Amino acid sequence: MAGVREMVNWLLAGPVRLPSGAYLSWVSSDNSSTLYAEAAAVAVRTICWWCRTCGDDQQLLRLIPTLAFLEQAVADDGLVRHRGQSWLFDSLLVLCALETAGRSGVPYPATTAVERLSQGCTEMLNAGCASRPADEMRWSSAFGPHLLKPTSLLLTMGMGTEQLRRAIRRALPTLLSCQDMAGAFRSPGENRVYLHAHCYALEGLAVLANAPEQLRKGLVYLLSQRRPDGGFPHWNDTPSPLAADVTAQAGRLFLLCEERDAAARARAALESLAAPSGALYYHAESSHQNSWSTAFAAQLDYGLQASIAATDLA
């Protein structure tokens, strides 16, 4: 697997980022990818983290076109749309990215995007919904535990408006209640556990740092789903392929919780998903070079190589 520099360089200068600054969800030979604001948001936060880490502020200037892309992704209702509907998770992540870029010193002109996103997200949180309208109920469109990650980031870092942070505080008990007795965070309406969403919930708990027992139980459950190769599938109790995003997320969580051996095993499992470009394939049976999986793996690699936890959790 490529090192952190190569992975960040792929995010910043590879084909996943178009000349306009827009981001694709992934790069594939079948051209199935689409423009994806969520992928851009994760990339922005990862690049800001890396530039702070290595002290390379000049690279931040290259993010300006991507911030314009993110701003344009915000619809009139203050939410980010994808595949014909508005998504709370995507909107919260875009808000995190715009705020992070500003705090990192990216000289992007002040706009109304942050205020509009804050208002749109506040309305959806107060309504207790995650997408509108929902064509089909799935983990990403549910008012579920994956929302713990961006809401926790916004709350603990004081991002967004105070009105939004109040809405987040009201929503947290509902989101935290999605954890079952075994420690699994299960999305409403799902019989199975989608481990990608479970990891997002644990990342939120790690950021909040006020629910150590829930985080511990969630990590124990996650470890119970580990494959013999040290990696993780997408779904619980299912012989599905090795999943790059879940495995990289799990590795970062293990570093944060000082489970270095488990983190190293996760990184070793990711070697089988390495593409020549420096990116990671989405899973063991996929030819898609995936943006967010590569971002997560970059932080895992840095944390292991530097013997520290990559705590920004892009």
Could you explain the architecture of this structure?
This protein is mostly helical and 314 residues long. It contains 12 helices and 6 strands. It has helices at residues 4-13, 37-54, 64-72, 88-103, 113-127, 148-156, 162-176, 195-208, 212-224, 244-256, 260-270, 291-305; strands at 26-27, 80-82, 85-87, 131-132, 280-281, 289-290. The chain has a 3-stranded antiparallel β-sheet. Strands 2-3-4 form a 3-stranded antiparallel β-sheet. Helix 8 (195-208) runs antiparallel to helix 9. The relative contact order is 0.13. The mean pLDDT is 93.
Question: Main traits of this protein?
Answer:
mainly alpha; three-stranded antiparallel beta sheet; globular; 314 residues
List the helices and strands and how they pair.
Blueprint: H1 4-13, E1 26-27, H2 37-54, H3 64-72, E2 80-82, E3 85-87, H4 88-103, H5 113-127, E4 131-132, H6 148-156, H7 162-176, H8 195-208, H9 212-224, H10 244-256, H11 260-270, E5 280-281, E6 289-290, H12 291-305
Antiparallel strand pairs: 1-6, 2-3, 3-4, 5-6
Helix pairs in contact: 1-12, 2-3, 2-4, 2-12, 4-5, 4-6, 5-7, 6-7, 6-8, 8-9, 8-10, 10-11, 10-12, 11-12
Number of E-type strands = 6
Largest sheet: number of strands, sense, barrel closure: 3 strands, antiparallel
**Adjacency order of strands in the biggest sheet:** 1-6-5
Helix coverage percent: 40-55%
**End-to-end gap:** 19 Å
| Rg, Å, rounded | 18 Å
Order of helices and strands: HEHHEEHHEHHHHHHEEH
Poorly predicted runs of 5 or more residues: none
**Average pLDDT:** 93
The backbone outline, from C-alpha atoms, is globular
| Strand percent estimate | under 5%
Number of helices, counting only DSSP H or I runs of 4 residues or more: 12
Structural class estimated from helices and strands: mainly alpha
Oligomer: single chain
